[in-house]
Amino acid sequence: MPEADVRLDRVTKRFGSFTAVDELSLEVPEGEFFSLLGPSGCGKTTTLRMIGGFEEVTSGTISLGDEDVTDLPPFKRATNTVFQNYALFPHLTVFENIAFGLRRRKTPIGEIRRQVASMLKLVELPGYEERRPNQVSGGQQQRVALARALINNPRVLLLDEPLGALDLKLRKQMQVELKRIQSEIGITFIFVTHDQEEAMTMSDRIAVMRAGRIEQLGAPEELYERPRSEFVAGFLGVSNLLDGDVAERDGELVQIRLANGVIIRAPAAATNGATKVRVGIRPEKLRVVHQGAEAASDTAETNGLDGTVFDASYVGVSTQYLVKTADGHTLTVYAQNLTSGASEALSEGQRVRLTWNPQHTFVIDDEGRVESAAPLEEESTT
């Protein structure tokens, strides 16, 4: 693994009696696109602000490379920050906004022109030099803010929900652009967001945060396919969770007896020695067919559950079915719409068979259960 650009060692931040970040340790390698993901109030923005020097650390240390920067002010750290509101100077042109940091360092004018031109090309805004922020779109303002941050050649770029003010279509476009820019320049990006799709689209690794701690850290695919807690499973998309007891090992798989007595199988390694577990299946991994068709589609190699459709919603690329099993569980299924029209759609009240590959089953032991709680309040500092 490359050298760590950012290292947090048991970092804690308290606001009075409230602990926003609780003994958080983390390493971000050089050149990684790393995201801090979680709900409002989980501590992700406070963590970013401590890395940038905008919040003082209550305890613990922060290093950039080999340098301990815990007590350094923001302007003495090799970081730059892009904020959600862009923080552009409204009275300055695009050129002057981008050149601001270079002018403060008394860079020669010829070098300023060269570097600004290079940044405008990188963010695909050549020809916009003389416009003011109110003369360009929100997405273009975001690019200007990005260019202004990058022109100072920071070791680490910190991004605090920079796409939050954009509409959905533009936000998706900017996700692709941010990843392209990060790949081209190769510096470390630390990105804060509450949007799981945003994090998964761009990130090399994601730290899912909850109550000031990291709940799980890993690559997007790992977090989605093998969540280790109910919180992570629910935050990264929709999960169907069922209670069960580990029955016996079956080669590389393990048999799990559900509460209704049905036996399903899951990867043995996923149980990690637990006996009481929750098994999870993502909605798109389930195949739903009319029970009359089960003989042609169901085999001994698949898991299966019977149920009744009680809601069907057409959502464009797929149809969402809500299926109630005999023991009262409600499972969500996404069936891709491969044909036009509703000729293949299942109707409400129809008896169906749900099947899925045992390898697509993830397992959470009792320690990974999360009891329902009141939603966290929005914290301006977290």
Characterization of this structure:
With 382 residues, the protein is an alpha+beta fold. It folds into two domains: 4-225, P-loop containing nucleotide triphosphate hydrolases (Rossmann fold, 3-Layer(aba) Sandwich), CATH 3.40.50; 238-367, Nucleic acid-binding proteins (OB fold (Dihydrolipoamide Acetyltransferase, E2P), Beta Barrel). Helix content is 23%, strand content 35%. The chain contains nine helices and 20 strands. The protein has helices spanning 44-52, 94-104, 109-122, 138-150, 168-185, 196-202, 220-225, 230-235, 294-297; strands at 4-15, 18-29, 33-37, 59-64, 67-68, 79-82, 156-160, 188-193, 205-210, 213-218, 240-250, 253-258, 263-267, 276-281, 287-290, 303-314, 318-325, 330-336, 351-356, 362-365. The strands form four sheets. A six-stranded mixed β-sheet has the order 6-7-8-3-9-10, with helices on both faces. A hairpin with a 3-residue loop joins strand 16 (303-314) and strand 17 (318-325). Helix 2 (94-104) crosses helix 3 (109-122) and helix 3 crosses helix 4 (138-150). The two termini are 30 Å apart. Mean pLDDT is 88; it is low at 370-382.
